[in-house]
């Protein structure tokens, strides 16, 4: 089936390749010249792995897909290449050469010379061998520093773009609803405003480097029952609208994200991949998104195999296209022969193909892939001799000094000091007992989507490719005069108790104990944190709690260090540990950042992006609970956290004072301005994070007791004080009313200027007046801070 239209061309340049014409004109001309098979070929990818010697990529085989023959596919074209760098360990230069040669083959094979979009994971850095492994997103949230995250994302994007990659599958904007979920480490936190602002900054950084940012998982994936991966989600329309959707809305409105990935889950029986009201009605018609919607891997096939809403793969393809999915990833399964047959038989209208194709080709045109001067040679090969692959080996550095410095900055800003009885910073200890399963485990700083943990573990014979000092090495460098004795005590999750007695004996002979506990990142049960590594409870894995309790009984001060992907209940340590230092898979510089906090070289400035539970069985709960979610006399389960969202200590003290408000009343379309003074009252420089929480005591629907609506980091020298002004628009008090519309209601509000969700320092009451007002997708999203 071919739709032929008259196109204006020159003998040299077809209209679709001529950048002097508007993109829409070029795309329409190209669509009109394509056969059905050529159209559909642009709507799927093929999962490949780069060649270790620089040859063309080879199709990757997965137990959820059939074998793919590139020779059969390429004459019709190819929309995407899935993870050429992130499938096997390959020298970056040879991987780039492999991708270059493959793009040359793709463009030569199809009659329009259209290259593929190459996409990669970039959740904790570019997921390629030898690339910097940055802290995981939960650490981004702990920084409360969008600017630092924006700079990190730009660096990741530049590395990806330099080797020929076009699209990154990040950030994850799922809001944590149950910390037992294995993918908590991939999220930014449990508050939608924090997730939205940090995630938007990441999008801005990635997009500034020319990489298409992909928002995921749209929407509801993190709200699965019992924290199980890919489980049913019980989400009402109000929770979806007020908790789960705002980060996506912000990243589209303010971040300029050009792609969205649908979630695996269904909400109230409708899978996201087949939800037209979500992917078209809300995303495009309301929010104005004009980019591409890509499938989560195998997500379209899941409409048949998991959800049971499609009778065959053709029905699944048609349902996804109708809903608004444009591209099948990671490989061709439903959008290939089944879709061709369905269109030919009239089961799926060709107009749906054209609609998706227009979005795909528009994005390719904007990336320059349709331009006559497009070249498969990436920027990293500028001036290189491409005929000698071995001479290229080692010529591309994806872990350079600038990357390392950014990774270190994020790691240092993300370390959270939860408790300190004055033991920290350590004052030249003579004997340190370093205990625990993560004391000498270099990979303890890495998340599930870092290349070494995601892919490298399958290739144990290949070096890890990056420098990963373990905690012993970093403490030795930090405390060169100390005698450091290392005892494992127990494993992360093996339940081995045989080393606990030795650990206690070693502790008794030391001046201080540093016990390194936490997780091992992995996939689908190979770890204690990561995709498919869900937890039955929030007790420390294995025998770690027993080790910790035994050390607390040793009589020696115990500094508890967590290298983890989620928060854990710490039992007695909350009151009995000398100090508790929390880090969330802090990346290549993570152990150095922790050592710097222990020595005092770094003044900790991280704040909790998720609450730390007091008991292991109190989930699911977050600080966003309404009044019924708080402790009460009618339940024996107390969900009060040990350390609340936003909590974090420093080695100095801050005084908050002089709160003023410009007016105590404002209309429902108005704003308030509050000002306060923050002074560093201690003897060393430090960082305070001023957090603004909104409390709405009376509303037409149940509201959380408080929610974050703004924050600002302040770096202050000893004795320095700054005046902080915050403008609070009435729009930030909006919520979804009983009729499903977002509204701002009149009434009293409490503004809490706080050091955390459990530590309000200054409060004031203001009143909104006038009629209730609808607040749509053009509303103001931020309480704006200004530091004077």
The gyration radius over C-alpha positions equals: 27 Å
Q: How large a portion of the residues is in β-strands, by DSSP E?
A: 15-25%
Biggest sheet details:
8 strands, mixed
Model regions low in confidence, pLDDT < 50 over at least 5 residues: 1-9
Summed up, the helix count is 22
- Structure classification: alpha/beta
Mean pLDDT: 95
Beginning-to-end CA distance, first to last residue: 66 Å
Shape: globular
Q: How many strand elements?
A: 28
**Percentage of helical residues?**
25-40%
Strand order of the largest sheet: 2-1-3-4-5-6-7-10
Keywords: Hydrolase
Family: Belongs to the glycosyl hydrolase 3 family.
Protein name: Glycoside hydrolase family 3 N-terminal domain-containing protein
GO molecular function, one term: hydrolase activity
Structure commentary:
The protein is of the alpha/beta class and 788 residues long. 27% of the residues lie in helices and 19% in strands. The strands form six sheets. Strands 2-1-3-4-5-6-7-10 form an eight-stranded mixed beta sheet. InterPro entries: Cellulose_deg_GH3, Fn3-like, GH, Glyco_hydro_3_C, Glyco_hydro_3_C_sf, Glyco_hydro_3_N, Glyco_hydro_3_N_sf, Ig-like_fold. This is Glycoside hydrolase family 3 N-terminal domain-containing protein.
What secondary-structure arrangement, pairings included, does this model have?
Layout: H1 23-33, H2 36-41, E1 45-49, E2 58-59, H3 70-73, E3 80-82, H4 92-109, E4 117-120, H5 137-143, H6 146-162, E5 167-168, H7 192-208, E6 212-218, H8 237-244, H9 246-253, E7 259-262, E8 266-267, E9 270-271, H10 276-286, E10 292-294, H11 302-305, H12 313-323, H13 337-344, H14 350-366, H15 389-392, H16 401-414, E11 416-420, E12 431-435, H17 451-454, H18 471-478, E13 483-487, H19 500-508, E14 512-518, H20 544-552, E15 558-564, H21 573-576, E16 579-584, H22 590-599, E17 654-661, E18 665-667, E19 671-680, E20 686-695, E21 707-716, E22 721-729, E23 735-736, E24 742-744, E25 747-756, E26 759-769, E27 773-774, E28 784-787
Parallel strand pairs: 1-3, 3-4, 4-5, 5-6, 6-7, 7-10, 12-13, 12-14, 14-15, 15-16, 18-26
Antiparallel strand pairs: 1-2, 8-9, 11-16, 17-19, 19-22, 20-21, 20-25, 22-28, 23-24, 24-27, 25-26
Helix pairs in contact: 1-14, 5-16, 6-7, 6-16, 7-9, 12-13, 16-22, 18-22, 19-20
């Amino acid at each position: 089936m071919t739709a032929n239209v008259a196109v204006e061309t020159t003998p040299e340049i077809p209209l679709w390749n001529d950048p002097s014409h508007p993109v829409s004109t070029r795309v329409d001309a190209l669509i009109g010249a394509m056969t059905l098979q050529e159209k559909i070929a642009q709507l799927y990818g093929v999962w490949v792995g780069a060649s270790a010697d620089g040859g063309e990529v080879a199709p990757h085989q997965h137990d959820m897909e059939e074998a793919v023959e590139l020779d059969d596919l390429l004459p019709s074209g190819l929309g995407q290449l899935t993870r050429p760098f992130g499938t096997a360990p390959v020298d970056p230069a040879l991987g780039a050469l492999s991708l270059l040669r493959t793009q040359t083959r793709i463009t030569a094979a199809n009659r329009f010379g259209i290259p593929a979009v190459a996409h990669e994971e970039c959740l904790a850095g570019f997921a390629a061998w030898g690339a910097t492994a940055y802290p995981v997103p939960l650490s981004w949230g702990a920084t409360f520093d969008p600017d630092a995250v924006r700079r990190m994302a730009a660096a990741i994007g530049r590395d990806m773009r330099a080797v020929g990659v076009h699209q990154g599958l990040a950030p994850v904007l799922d809001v944590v609803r149950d910390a037992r979920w294995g993918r908590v480490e991939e999220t930014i936190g449990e508050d939608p405003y924090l997730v939205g602002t940090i995630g938007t900054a990441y999008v801005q950084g990635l997009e500034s480097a020319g990489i298409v940012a992909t928002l995921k998982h749209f929407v509801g994936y993190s709200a699965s029952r019992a924290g199980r991966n890919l489980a049913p989600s019980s989400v009402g329309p109000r929770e979806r609208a007020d908790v789960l959707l705002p980060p996506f809305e912000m990243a589209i409105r303010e971040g300029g994200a050009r792609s969205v990935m649908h979630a695996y889950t269904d909400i109230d029986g409708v899978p996201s991949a087949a939800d037209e009201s979500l992917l078209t009605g809300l995303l495009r018609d309301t929010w104005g998104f004009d980019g591409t919607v890509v499938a989560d891997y195998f997500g379209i096939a899941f409409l048949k195999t998991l959800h049971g809403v499609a009778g065959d793969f053709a029905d699944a393809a048609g349902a996804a296209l109708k809903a608004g999915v444009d591209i099948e990833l990671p490989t061709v399964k439903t959008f290939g022969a089944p879709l061709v047959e369905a269109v030919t038989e009239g089961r799926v209208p060709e107009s749906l193909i054209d609609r998706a194709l227009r979005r795909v080709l528009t994005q390719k045109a904007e990336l320059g892939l349709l331009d006559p001067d497009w070249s498969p040679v990436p920027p990293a090969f500028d001036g290189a001799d491409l005929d000698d692959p071995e001479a290229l080996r080692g010529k591309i550095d994806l872990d350079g000094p600038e990357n390392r410095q950014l990774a270190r900055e994020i790691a240092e800003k993300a370390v959270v000091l939860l408790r300190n009885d004055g033991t920290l910073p350590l004052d030249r200890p003579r004997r340190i007992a370093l205990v625990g399963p993560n004391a000498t485990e270099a990979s303890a700083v890495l998340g599930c989507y870092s290349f070494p943990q995601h892919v490298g573990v399958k290739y144990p014979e290949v070096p890890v490719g990056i420098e990963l000092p373990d905690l012993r090495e970093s403490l030795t460098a930090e405390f060169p005069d100390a005698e450091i004795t290392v005892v494992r005590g127990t494993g992360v999750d093996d339940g081995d108790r045989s080393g606990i007695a030795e650990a206690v004996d070693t502790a008794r002979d030391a001046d201080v104990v540093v016990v390194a506990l936490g997780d091992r990142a992995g996939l689908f049960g190979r770890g204690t944190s990561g995709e498919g590594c869900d937890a039955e409870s929030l007790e420390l894995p294995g025998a770690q709690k027993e080790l910790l309790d035994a050390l607390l009984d040793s009589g020696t001060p115990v500094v508890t260090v967590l290298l983890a992907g989620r928060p854990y209940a710490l039992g007695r340590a909350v009151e009995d540990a000398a100090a508790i230092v929390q880090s969330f898979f802090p990346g290549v510089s993570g152990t150095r950042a922790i050592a710097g906090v222990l020595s005092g070289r770094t003044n900790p400035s991280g704040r909790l992006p998720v609450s730390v539970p007091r008991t292991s069985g109190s989930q699911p709960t977050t600080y966003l609970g309404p009044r019924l979610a708080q402790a009460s006399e009618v339940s024996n389960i107390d969900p009060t956290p040990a350390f609340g969202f936003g909590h974090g200590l420093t080695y100095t003290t801050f005084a908050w004072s002089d709160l003023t408000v410009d007016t105590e009343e404002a209309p429902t379309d108005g704003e308030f301005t509050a000002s306060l003074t923050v002074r560093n009252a201690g003897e060393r420089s430090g960082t305070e994070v001023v957090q603004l929480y909104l409390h709405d005591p009376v509303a037409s629907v149940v509201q959380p007791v408080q929610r974050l609506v703004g924050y600002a980091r302040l770096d202050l020298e000893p004795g320095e004080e700054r005046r902080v002004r915050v403008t609070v628009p009435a729009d930030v008090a909006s919520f979804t009313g009983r009729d499903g519309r977002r509204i701002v209601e009149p009434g009293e509000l409490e503004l809490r200027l706080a050091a955390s969700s459990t530590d309000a320092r200054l409060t004031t009451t203001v009143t909104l007046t006038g009629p209730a007002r609808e607040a749509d997708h053009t509303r103001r999203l931020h309480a704006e801070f200004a530091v004077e």
